[in-house]
Amino acid sequence: MKPYQLEYLSLVRAAAQQIRPSADELEPEEFVEASRRQKREARRAIDRGTVLLRERLFPVLGNIFAVSDEDARDLEEFAAELTRPGVGNDVELGCRIHQALLSRARQAGDRDGVIRELYYVGMTLHSLESMLSPNSLRLYTARMRMCFTESASYFETDYEDIKDPETRGYIHRSMGNIALSYVDNSPASAKAKLAAITRSLRILSDPEIQAMTPSLPWEQYIYKTHQECTTLLNFLRSGQAGPEAFAQVLESAQIVQDRQTAAARERGIPLQPRWQYAYMAARYHCGAMLLPELLDGLYGLSTSKEDDDMSHEGMFSHVTAPALYIEYSKGLTGGRAAAEAELRIPRMTHRLLAWLVRFPSGVDEQVSFAVRQFIYAYRELPGCMSFYEALQNVLAACCPTLYARGWIVSHMAERMALWAASDCPGRLAGIPGFATAEDVSARSGELLSLVRRAGRVYDAGMIHFVNFEASACRGLISDEEALLQLHAHCGAMLLSRHPSTAVFADVAKGHHCHFDGRGGYPRDFSILDSPMRPLIALISAADTLSAAVEEISTRMRPYVTFDQALAQLREGSGTAYAPFVAELLTPARCEELRLSLEEWRHEAYLHMYNRRAAMRSM
């Protein structure tokens, strides 16, 4: 690889290790300073990485047809490292490189190169799509399916003419991966996914096909396809799959179970909990196991690893198994099992948070996905913490920038709400529970509490993109902006699921909408019709002003000075921002906010420190 490529990779990997403050053993003030130091280092890495790519990589991609074969191989290796699973990668940049190499292969008539790059573009799109899971929103599935389908189509047209075993391997891998693009829980999607898996298994198991390229790892391909088939459990849980899906999933789960059991016996280690779950769940959905039995099994898996086991199997035990337990427990209708679930879920939640806060810096996408599974499955039960509190704990454990941003925005919005309640209470009338100006004035304390809580969760949808925020050392490129805009939808869907946060769903969805309803995003949200419009106006303004706090700036939210943020708010008054907010910001009040930012930043990290300490002792 080229020196600039190696340097960029080193920047990305170093930045990924600083996703969270690694300072729990420090005193509180040392923790705050460590957090500030890490953010300064991350900002320098972003600035350097942006220069490297702008000056060295993007000119090459812009002239990809003139690239030499040697430089193309360097780009392939660079893209492979950027998209390698684990901590420290930049999938979107890797996708861009593979797309450029695909164009080069097409222009050169390089059939093997086209097949290979179609596979890799599809895989990078799958990685980007996974950030939205388990939310039902989708952005890349159609493009991903097109890539895998085109690559797999060479099996029908050119397979015998292709002599390179590796290229044939890409065809089979693409054929199997078509199933990855069917993710929504609908009967049509389940049927299409099952058809793709069935076809792939039939071809992979054909002795004549295997004899054509004996060097390929056929057994591994077949086994991986059976593993993918077990993901049909998601469809089975939804109740949308037909009987053929149940039979195929049970057969695949049995094959995976047998192989995992044999491997565990051979190595003298316990069976991996994720495959124990797959087998139990398949048996449950096919009627061979009752729901209380499945729940007992999941509870056992949740305690099957030691508290200090930070492996991915430990992650499954401590995070995924509780999430699955909570999700399945929603099917209980009463009786002993339901009562037992109400006792178990708080215990599993506390154990999960204690494990999560101990997880070392460098949370990868697998752990992030498991955390999202947990928060989407969460149930507010008697004796269990509210979802609002559970979300705050998760953010403090693994999303420090997001936690600090919510803290700062909440206090800034609360301060502006206090001024509005005094100067123009009628502007806040209409917020649920505060129908008139008199309500606002008489119960301002309740209103301020509502504003403060809204500020703590308004950006909850960004939990999908925590790794994305820290996984690259550069500015955003176009596709990423469209992906990140989905955080407003994700946040609204997440908050609306729980009594303690449902009132804030409109705030999460509308905080990037223009106050006049004519701009911003998402376009399908009518801020003019939302009863939370005055509160959204406060949060939106506070979010803009919070960009003046360097410790919560990211490559997605660049740092600006307070005066620049204030000028943006004033210039957008009446369009992007509410006029009454700009009117509140007199010179004296602006100075008060400017001085308070430092205090709130400091408080945010101290409270994060204390919350993390409390979780460690759960």
Structure description:
The structure is a single chain. The chain has 618 residues and is mainly α. It has a domain at 399-616: Hypothetical protein af1432 (Orthogonal Bundle), CATH 1.10.3210. The protein is 68% helix and 0% strand. The chain has 29 helices and no strands. Helix 1 packs antiparallel against helix 2. The radius of gyration is 26 Å and the shape is globular. It starts with a helix and ends with a helix.
Q: Low-confidence spans: pLDDT under 50, at least 5 residues?
A: none
Structural class: mainly alpha
Computed CA radius of gyration, to the nearest angstrom: 26 Å
CATH class of the domain at 399-616: Mainly Alpha
Q: Helix and strand succession?
A: HHHHHHHHHHHHHHHHHHHHHHHHHHHHH
The number of helical segments is 29
The CATH topology of the domain at 399-616 turns out to be Hypothetical protein af1432
Helix content: 55-70%
* Shape verdict: globular
CATH superfamily of the domain at 399-616: Hypothetical protein af1432
Report the biggest beta sheet as strand number plus sense, adding barrel if it closes.
Answer: none
Our estimate of the beta-strand percent is under 5%
Termini Cα gap: 47 Å
